[in-house]
Amino acid sequence: MKLPIVAYGDPVLKRKAVDIDPEYPNLDGLIQDMFETMHNARGVGLAAPQVGLSIRLFVVDASPFDDEDDDPILKTFKKTFINPQIIEESGEPWGFNEGCLSIPDIREDVYRKPKIKIQYLDDKFQEHIEEYDGVAARIIQHEYDHIEGKLFTDYLTPLRRARLKSKLDSITRGQIKVDYKMKFPSLRRK
Question: Is 131 considered catalytic here?
């Protein structure tokens, strides 16, 4: 089932998410719905807060980057991350033009460290500690930020955010056209 994606301005996107346990209701169904929602919106990652749930869960599928990047891991990089914790970030920060399904039609260069070490549970609640670099690390960092209550726009300078304010306000009000289902904060209050 395709879930509506929560738009910029909704408080759930700025809230630090909570851990879940294996008894979380219909977790397998939620994960499947999140992958379907992400693929339908042509994204490479989707975090639970983006579908209105303040829980520490995100999914990634980097295969769309396979044609653009020579990193062979991207072709098969499809994973579920439950209760993740980034243990370490290292290297010299590098810029990459990021976008977000909750902030459609806005893309900005964001600087992040190129290597990470992350501890997480998979969809079977098996624990993993893994290292990633390059685009794979960046996708994880972006989705991880969502469960920490951060958006890529938080990394922009105050001047750049001020210049984007009218576009961001339009997204919050639902004055944007997207080809996937969204929930807009200002439309729910009416």
Answer: no
